[in-house]
Design a protein that fits this description.
Elements: E1 21-23, H1 40-49, E2 55-57, H2 63-66, H3 72-80, H4 85-91, H5 97-120, E3 122-125, H6 146-156, E4 163-167, H7 174-180, E5 186-193, E6 206-210, H8 216-234, E7 238-242, H9 260-276, E8 281-284, H10 293-311
Parallel strand pairs: 1-2, 1-3, 3-8, 4-5, 4-7, 5-6, 7-8
């Protein structure tokens, strides 16, 4: 049986807005004790935003859709579990059938959010932003690259003529940059830690590498002074927004010191700019690994809270 790639339209009388979000939180997978992957945050974010908007189960992306940007042999081997220990180490997660199901659900949530963005102006996935996946290589907890897949589908299907990917995870979106490097109708923009992972950077359309210890004020100055003007100059008609929470102070894999207020203001500025430009925008969670689990959840939930403020 083929699963749908987007959820059916639905009405939720208790909300006074039409927005909804997608989540793969119910699709967990086995991990070794003490593993650093923050599986807790997906359920945490879902529970935090449930009073604000309906949260639907993320539909499953089809393998053929993933094949728009990924090598077919690569996808087939991961689907069947025919991967090496070295590949698992580079990916950062052990292979399991449950992990594969969850991966396809997380990416399917991004595609469903894209369809919402096209009709409502904004769509939200409470997962996704898996920007370290290359055409035939996994890395950094990323197996398939949903931002690149969405970009390819949008351009090929005529849903957009010019797509911008704004990657505000603390790590450069190296896989996205590589997959879209030769697509003139796509613009990849990454604000990231210049000395952080990945240590071998790819070339985005615009890379804005910032030093360790970057504060709210420094980050927001670069966002408003350089990033948003560059997007304005490109004139996209679709924005994919990776709203990483690993820019927060205390993140295990980040080296910035943004506050939760800084995250709120970052998300508000991006979403307000998109709304004022008449751009449909898809928000994806990307990374967040704070030592304070509640802060990770709050940082990720911020993009939904600000989305409802701006678009509602």
């Amino acid at each position: 049986m083929t699963e749908p790639t987007s959820a059916p339209a639905a009405t939720f009388p208790r909300f006074i807005h039409p927005f909804r979000a997608y989540s793969p939180a119910e699709f967990t997978f086995p991990l070794p004790e003490g593993h650093r992957f923050p599986q807790y945050k997906y359920e945490g974010v879902r529970e935090r935003v449930l009073p604000l908007l309906p949260v639907l189960t993320a539909p499953r992306l089809r393998w053929a859709q993933a094949g728009r940007v990924h090598d077919s042999h690569y996808l087939r081997r991961w689907r069947r579990g025919e991967v090496t220990r070295k590949e698992e180490r580079e990916f950062g997660l052990p292979w399991s059938e449950e992990m594969i199901v969850r991966t396809m659900r997380a990416a399917g949530g991004s595609l469903a959010a894209l369809h919402d963005a096209r009709t409502l102006g904004w769509g939200a996935n409470l997962a996704g932003g898996t920007h370290h996946a290359f055409a035939a290589q996994a890395g950094g907890f990323c197996l398939i690259n949903d931002a690149a897949i969405l970009s390819r589908l949008a351009l090929d299907e005529g849903w957009a003529q010019r797509v911008a990917v704004l990657d505000l995870d603390v790590h450069q979106g190296d896989g996205t940059a590589a997959l879209l490097e030769h697509e003139p109708q796509a613009f990849t923009l990454s604000i990231h830690g210049e000395r952080n992972y990945p240590f071998r950077k790819q070339r985005s359309s615009l890379d804005l590498g910032l030093p360790d210890g970057t504060t709210d004020a420094q980050y927001l100055e670069v966002l408003s002074g350089q990033a948003l003007p560059a997007l304005e100059a490109f004139r996209p008609d679709l924005l994919l927004f990776l709203a990483g929470a690993d820019v927060l102070a205390g993140d295990r894999f980040g080296r910035f010191v943004l506050t939760l207020d800084g995250i709120h203001e970052r998300n508000r500025r991006v979403l307000t700019w998109a709304r004022d430009a008449g751009l449909p925008v898809v928000s994806m969670m990307a990374g967040g690994y704070n030592a304070d689990h509640a802060l990770t959840v709050a940082g990720h939930a911020s993009v939904v809270e600000q989305g409802l403020e701006v678009f509602g």
